[in-house]
Known about the structure:
By secondary structure, this protein is α+β, with helices and mostly antiparallel strands. It has helices at residues 8-12, 35-45, 60-68, 76-86, 91-95, and strands spanning 2-5, 20-22, 50-56, 72-73, 97-102. Helix content is 38%, strand content 20%.
Amino acid sequence: MLSIINSAAEAYRGVTRKRSSARAAVLPESQGHGVGGELLGHLRTLTTRRMLVGTWAAAEWAISFYERHGFEATSPEQKTALLKTYWTIPDRQVETSVVLANPPFPPWH
């Protein structure tokens, strides 16, 4: 799931509405050929807002892909706040997920 938000303040103040979200995937037979990178590049041209990606913490290949394309993992505290604000998932899934942001959030205090 990819979400686009306006600011860190929006994410941390308990905003409950999603600004925009989309599910996108590349077919397995097309993976490794630059299609996903092109898709992200195209999505980036559609907005100047922050993009968020949530995925399983164990999906190292996915995390690596997003990091190569300018996303950075959020802190555990940011992750929990973001997942509870922008996603509707069980608490167990919150525990086993990561959120990556592009552009990255500043450190959260």
